[in-house]
Amino acid sequence: MWLITTLGLAVVASLATIVFRWRYRLSLLALMFWGATVAIFVDHLIGWWEEGGSFLQARTEGWVESGPLLGLLMAAPVLAVWIALVIRR
């Protein structure tokens, strides 16, 4: 589910880039989320290929057991870097 969460954030950032006409470095935010989405997709694909099982999981076996919460926690550093870049501008 963290793949779906990150994909949703990438789509929202891309739409925000279009709506706000390239202000606030939203294109950079969208690029960072799309990069994270591709990385998570490759990770899921390799895990599915080697271990089998389901491609998307709602529960994880790590510290954070909720898939959507994990996706939001993974988005926090991306947003922090983006905010720092916008403020620095």
- The number of domains is 1
Portion of residues within helices: over 70%
N→C terminal distance: 34 Å
**Helix/strand order:** HHH
Q: Which sheet architecture does the biggest sheet show?
A: none
What are the low-pLDDT stretches, counting only 5+ consecutive residues below 50? none
What is the average per-residue confidence, as pLDDT, rounded to a whole number?
A: 88
Shape: elongated
Structural class: mainly alpha
* Rg of Cα set: 14 Å
Q: What is the number of strand segments?
A: 0
Count of helix runs: 3
How does this model look, in words?
It is built from three helices and no strands. 74% of the residues lie in helices and 0% in strands. The protein is an all-alpha fold and 89 residues long. The protein has one domain (2-88). The protein is elongated and about 45 Å long.
What labels would you give this structure?
single chain; 89 residues; 74% helix; elongated; mainly alpha
Concise account of the structure shown:
It contains 3 helices and no strands.
Ordered list of secondary-structure elements with their pairings:
Elements lengths: L1 H18 L6 H26 L15 H22 L1
Helix pairs in contact: 1-2, 1-3, 2-3
